[in-house]
Amino acid sequence: MTETADDLSAPLGQDKPRRKRRLRLPFTAMQLLAVLLGLFLATFAGFAIFNKDPLGGEPMTRIALKPMDKASDEKPAAAGHGSETKQEGKHETNEAPKQAAPGEQKTVTMIDGSTGARHDVVIGAGEAADKGDAAGSAPPPVMAGINPKLLEKSRYGMIPVVADGLKPFNVYAADADRAKAAKMPVVAIVIGGLGVGAAKTTDAIMKLPPAVTLAFTPYGADPGKLAERARAQRHEIFLQIPMEPYDFPDNDPGPQTLLTSLSADQNMDRLYWHLSRMQGYAGLTNFMGARFIATEPAMQPIIREAAKRGLGFFDDGSSPRSIAPQAAANQAMPFGKGDIAIDVVPTPTEIDRALNKLESAARERGAAVGTASALPVSIERIGAWTKTLGDRGILLVPLTTAMLKSKSS
Questions:
Q1: What is the pLDDT of residue 120?
Q2: Beta strands in 244-332 (DSSP E)
Q3: Alpha carbon 346 to chain centroid, angstroms
Q4: CA-based nearest residue to 188, from 169, 215, 166, 224
Q5: DSSP of 366-379, one letter per residue?
Q6: Which of 242, 243, 244, 214 is nearest to 230 (CA)?
Q7: Are 205 and 214 in contact (CB under 8 A)?
Q8: How far is residue 399's CA from residue 315's CA, in Å, rounded to a whole number?
Q9: Is residue 300 classed as helix, strand or coil in its secondary structure?
Q10: How far is CA 127 from the centre of its chain?
Q11: pLDDT single digits (tens) 325-371
Q12: For the chain, how far is it from start to end, CA to CA, in angstroms?
C-alpha cells in the first residue's frame, strides 16, 4: 500500500483526520418522480371510485321531462315544432323536413330540386322514430270527417284500408262534375310540399280554388291539423312519400325515407309510419325519389301496398325512368302523372308561360296535370289563371277526376 507523507507523520494510535461527508438524500430523483406519479394515480383512482360522477368533465345536456297531466293527455298537442318552418315543397325549397317526437329537434339542410337553393330548417325529430321504434312519438289523432271503417291500427297509428267495398280513393276524392269533365279538356293542379310551414300552407288552402289538389308531406308538428283544414275548404289531399333521390344523402328528403338499400319489409315499415301521419288522403305521391321510383324491386311493393289499401298513385313526373306507370297498370289502380312543373323558374312571366303550355297539353290530350309549390308568386299566378280558365273552354278539376279520365281514355 502506498502511504503518503501525512500518514507517516501522524502519531501512532490516532485516527486519520476524517473527510467531510456530503449530505445525501434518502432517495434519488427517479425515485422521487416514481413516488409522485404513484400518488397521482392513487388520487385519480380514489376520485373515480368514490365520486358519483367520474365523467363529470364530459360535456352534458340535461333535459327535464315532465309527466303529462291527464288534461293535456286528452287533448291533441297544438301545432308546435315545424309549423312555422321554411319548408315549401318539392319545387320550391324541397325542405323535406324531419318528423318527430315531441321535444326533440333536428336541423336539416334542404335543397330546392328546381333551383338548387339550400335552406336550413329546424324541425322536430324523434330518435326512436328514426330507428323504427313505435314508441318514438304518440300516434297522431284521427282527423275530423274521416270514415272510421276505412282505418286500421298499425304500430304507428291509424292507416287506410278498404272496407265494405269502399276505397279511400273514391271516398276522399273531391266533388267534381265528372259528366262535364268527360266532354271537355280538363286541367288539374297539384300543390306539393305542404304541412311544414303553416303560413304558406294556409295561403294555398285559402287562396286557391277548391278544385286545386294539395299534397302534404308527413312532417311537421301536426300535419293532420293543416290537412284537416284543407279538407274543410273542400280541397282534395294526397300524401307525399319521401323517396330516395340519386344524390342521397347529400339531398335528403327526411326521416323514414324509402331507400333502395333497404329490404322490402324495412321500406314497408317506413311506409306505414308515413301513412299514419294523417288521414283523408285519396292517394300517394312521391316526394323527390328519382332513384327509388326508377328501381323496380324497391317500387313494386309500394305500389302493390297502395293498391291493396284502396289508394291512387300520382307520379310527379320528375323522373323520366319511373316505373310507376307500369306498376300501377299491373295493379289496375288509379294513376296519374305530372305533365308540367309550373314554377321551375319562379317568376310571373315563366309561370304564366308554363300555365299556357299546360292548357295546350289539355287541349291536345284531353287532360293535363301541372305541379307547383306554395310560393307566393305561384299561388298568385295560378289563382289568377284559374279565374278565366272556364272562359277558354278548359275545366279545372281535382287530381282524382283527371286520373279517372286518363284511365278511361
A1: 45
A2: 283-288, 312-315
A3: 24
A4: 215
A5: SEEEEEE---HHHH
A6: 214
A7: yes
A8: 12
A9: helix
A10: 13
A11: 999 999 999 999 999 999 999 999 999 999 999 999 999 999 999 99
A12: 131
CB 126 within 8 A of CB 100: yes
217's grid cell:
308531406
d(CA 203, CA 380): 10
SS3 356: helix
The pLDDT of residue 45 is 63
Residue 8 has what DSSP assignment? H
Instruction: Retrieve residue 303's grid coordinates.
Output: 305500389
In Å, how far are 12, 13, 403 from 3, measured between CA atoms?
A: 14, 16, 126
What string of DSSP letters covers 193-235? EESSSHHHHHHHHHHS-TTSEEEE-S-SS-HHHHHHHHHHTT-
**Report field, pTM of the whole predicted structure over 0.90:** no
Measured CA to CA in angstroms, residue 126 lies from 129, 133, 181, 277, 407 at distances of 5, 9, 45, 14, 40
Burial of 134 (C-beta count, 10 Å sphere; 0-12/13-18/19+): middle
Give me 383's grid cell: 289563382
CA torsion sign, 304 to 280 to 243 to 249?
negative
pLDDT for 329:
97
pLDDT tens sequence across 176-220? 999 999 999 999 999 999 998 899 999 999 999 999 999 999 998
What's the pLDDT score for residue 378? 98
Distance, CA of 369 to CA of 389 (rounded, Å): 14
Residue closest to 325 by CA, chosen among 297, 290, 294, 289 = 294
Percentage of the chain lying above the pLDDT 90 cut: 62
In 3-state terms, what secondary structure has residue 269?
helix
Q: How far apart are CA 137 and CA 127, in angstroms?
A: 9
C-alpha cell at 82: 315545424
137-152 pLDDT per residue, tens: 567 777 778 999 999 9
- What is the amino acid identity at position 168? P
